[in-house]
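Journal club prep — side note

Before the paper discussion, L.F. wants everyone to see what a predicted structure for a comparable chain looks like in token form. Sequence:
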Amino acid sequence: MTPTFQNAKMTKVYSPKLMQNISLYIYIVFGVWLLVLSIFLYRFLSFYKRLVNGVEVGDIKKILEKILVRGDDNSNSIREIFKRLDLIEEKDKRHIQKVGLIRFNPFSELGGDHSFCLAILDDRDSGVVITGLHTRDRTRVYIKDIKNGQSSLELSSEEKKALASAEKSK
């Protein structure tokens, strides 16, 4: 033997079974990588299709301009909705907001509380006080106007109680 051949070191020889296992691991890693890339590409293409939906053949600039126009239209619509909502809320303050009811017996000869005072007010404490006085023969109904919690006519004690009850409610 020659001196060069004697100095050569023996390299480790791998078995074919080990080589197959390593190859299998490499294929699995590349398969998972290919699956991840495929999912990413599918999601990207579906997003792109949604983005260009309804747009004829054109460039991306036209698509983005269309999206910006839609966004501006939506912003204007939302502003208009908020204006209408503010108007509705302002008008809502004029509707019935507070109610107070007092039942009483103004006449000692009648049994039970058949008479009443009903105060109906809006958010600004304006409205009416309706009083119904019940007797054996008839029932009389009186209405007094209320503006800002005050009446131009004198209120009875029951009407004042109904008004106070309405002002507390809400």
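L.F.'s comment for the group: The chain has three domains: 15-51, 57-92, 98-168. Keep this in mind when we get to the figures.
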